[in-house]
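Section 3.1: Structural characterization of target chains.
Under the original work plan, the team committed to producing a structural model for every single-chain target entering the pipeline before any wet-lab resources were allocated. The record below documents one such target. The sequence was received from the expression subgroup and is listed exactly as submitted; it comprises 97 residues.
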Amino acid sequence: MANSLIQLRVDDKLKTEATDIFEKLGMDLSTAIRIFLTRSVEERGIPFAMKLGTDSYKAETAVKAMREMSKTAEANGIADMTLDEINAEISAARNEA
């Protein structure tokens, strides 16, 4: 089987960090890239999940939840309660249970 040469440019730091990781796994950078290409062909796509970071997702989810709670508080006429009033409500509810 004939071989082809693939050249690519990457940041020096990225190359060094990746090389260190692959050496710890017992392979060189070229072998790791061949594995990636082989798996890509087998999977007929990128051989791993491509997702947005969870930190961004958690922040978006938290903001959405806060907006929903704010709407609910306004709808129930309790949006302007102080922390002391909220804590008093919680205590009263716990005492009823």
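The chain has four helices and no strands.
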